[in-house]
Amino acid sequence: xxxxxxxxxxxxxxxxxxxxxxxxxxxxxxxxxxxxxxxxxxxxxxxxxxxxxxxxxxxxxxxxxxxxxxxxxxxxxxxxxxxxxxxxxxxxxxxxxxxxxxxxxxxxxxxxxxxxxxxxxxxxxxxxxxxxxxxxxxxxxxxxxxxxxxxxxxxxxxxxxxxxxxxxxxxxxxxxxxxxxxxxxxxxxxxxxxxxxxxxxxxxxxxxxxxxxxxxxxxxxxxxxxxxxxxxxxxxxxxxxxxxxxxxxxxxxxxxxxxxxxxxxxxxxxxxxxxxxxxxxxxxxxxxxxxxxxxxxxxxxxxxxxxxxxxxxxxxxxxxxxxxxxxxxxxx
Amino acid sequence: xxxxxxxxxxxxxxxxxxxxxxxxxxxxxxxxxxxxxxxxxxxxxxxxxxxxxxxxxxxxxxxxxxxxxxxxxxxxxxxxxxxxxxxxxxxxxxxxxxxxxxxxxxxxxxxxxxxxxxxxxxxxxxxxxxxxxxxxxxxxxxxxxxxxxxxxxxxxxxxxxxxxxxxxxxxxxxxxxxxxxxxxxxxxxxxxxxxxxxxxxxxxxxxxxxxxxxxxxxxxxxxxxxxxxxxxxxxxxxxxxxxxxxxxxxxxxxxxxxxxxxxxxxxxxxxxxxxxxxxxxxxxxxxxxxxxxxxxxxxxxxxxxxxxxxxxxxxxxxxxxxxxxxxxxxxxxxxxxxxxxxxxxxxxxxxxxxxxxxxxxxxxxxxxxxxxxxxxxxxxxxxxxxxxxxxxxxxxxxxxxxxxxxxxxxxxxxxxxxxxxxxxxxxxxxxxxxxxxxxxxxxxxxxxxxxxxxxxxxxxxxxxxxxxxxxxxxxxxxxxxxxxxxxxxxxxxxxxxxxxxxxxxxxxxxxxxxxxxxxxxxxxxxxxxxxxxxxxxxxxxxxxxxxxxxxxxxxxxxxxxxxxxxxxxxxxxxxxxxxxxxxxxxxxxxxxxxxxxxxxxxxxxxxxxxxxxxxxxxxxxxxxxxxxxxxx
Lengths: 332, 632
Description:
The complex is a heterodimer. By secondary structure, chain A is an all-alpha fold. Chain A has 16 helices and 2 strands. Chain B starts with a helix and ends with a strand. Chain B is an alpha+beta fold.
């Protein structure tokens, strides 16, 4: 078990390294760099930028160095905790990011909890009452949530919330609470706004979860030991919970690895549409203006969260399934 | 330039008011929150905060103090919009687009070469320090004249043929700029929406300047906050247009009090603001302005939900029906202001396209005229703009003194038969199986119009043009791209035709520069390479090789050296005539109304105004500092 943990931790390092190279390469792929989009914007506003100025700015931003050099500077900085400088905001990245990472984390966490809370009872019910009206009905709703585009669903819920409940449009809280210290009012306002993105992102994840849980549980319920237990007079609920459910939970927990990236990227789109103060909108605008360090650092943060999340899910799986603990590998 | 007589009367009128014993009214003429601060000893009394002769702004309804104005903006950078809305300039445009001194008490012009700016006695910065010619000296000698802060020299609007002005500071309240040749750009640059700043708070910035403080210590301080050296620290501190530094002393009506980054910026009133109303009460009326940053696409929805008190930015005409329906729910009326762009949308045939066949065809004026005649502008106006827009060329508006009906209407009527005749005369007579004409080299006459992909309105208009062009045998394809790619393709000559807004200033006076009509900038989508050639003084780009374009450039030069309004007007008219006959851009509609949503309780906002960036500063020329909240 211990060696398993150590191995998993050590694998994280090359993973993050490869991610950092990929992130850097992909951000630099489009023609030009931050400077060219910045100058294009200046010129569009009617300001004249001479060739000398461009060369000067290029040197000032450090964009005249080679790609490899820029990457190494960034990597070295990150390892020391200095995430670089945002060209667009003219501030160090850590100051620009601020609360957004924390709010992103809360959003993702709430979404995953929502997904579990919704998918679990529905999956169990669907499996135990296979082919009933409820089974079909709930599955249909799940698939509707999966099929509807996230942004459309978000806008519809936004409008409904505003007209029916009077919730202010967009954002994670009412405007007057934005800079105010935490209070009950602020918390309530956050919850009032949070349910929309959570429901929107969560529903696309629940459909998959429900079907997986249902399928696995059905497989288990067909097995011999269930028939034996039933014949021996075990109460049905206890029978269900103690044996088949624990087997069926395996993929449920292993799927966090799949769920996390889906939630984080789904959250980015929904955040942009709903104008939430999370990483999504800022990441999008940083990528569009090729603000290298801000975009790169964001992506590294998110990758780190994902990698750690998957590590925790593997840990949970190892705790849940003795076969993994004893054999030291994962089963999927 | 002659200043309106009433400007010279202002000091006299105020003197009369003072002698009339209005000092009692002045003592009460400040906001209650400022009066409280005066009583607590935090601020000097009003008489010491206002200049000896403040600017008196007359308005329809004198207002009451109080209230908080909520605005919505699309990006964090739009904090600079408060500098635009505040519109505090040395000399600025009034609502009739005449130049009136604002921060300056008077501006004397001699032969357009010598400009004397007289400041107001007792005028102070927002932190109480005096605003004097020392601030102009600091900017001229230590910012524009410092090789580390301005490695490329003073701004181009201060150079006449590369020659900088002779700057004199006769006394604490006077600054004089003199050139050997006329500089017609100086005053318009000072009054511009994105102005030329020729002053800086010397008392605040000197400690951050290497000439007055220890360079090593400054560099160390700069590196400690993540800046490269003292010069970039200074540049960060002094960014008056961008509103990024809450500690920077300013002269605007509201001062930013929230540091970046944030999604909600609060602007507090400036206790030393220099304008008063007719009763001597210090402006602004509104205590606070709150700017919330939200995604641009959500702003119409948020405005419809009543989250903004004064909104026009990010609202377009296509949101009008939604906002009108929302009027019932929120009670906030929607006004329609006039936009004054030469054309809301115009097609720009790229005369610098690299493909030789297209190049030859686009340069033939008959081809451009035929394309223009084949556009059914009335249909577009009716379908998309409910008939509220003005059909016609990309030219000046009807209210402009230079307007002639032929500028707007030449080649702009819908005449498919004439278009067909022109195409036939060009030799494009063979058609393929789809009834589309063929180019001389056998390719079908398919024009790919590229858009910046940001607006469905453009795609809708192109859809309608496509059907009317098909009648004359021209096929249109729309290609949405991302803005930078869109621009770069036009600049390189890969694009055949693009669609964008027309002339930025559709209400010019003869004293405004006609540079938009001549190939002077790479940003002009019909001749980017000629424009680039002009911008870089010949080092990059191509020289114009079309007689009409060369004439436009020479006329633009002549305007700079012209004497007298009449001569300038003649030059303008000739340039407009060339444009209307040569059809360098195919204008579609202009004067598309701009929805402006105003809180039901907000007064002094004109129900019908001009919504334009330059000149106009959106709300700037209507002085938001005179807006006030009524009780109900």
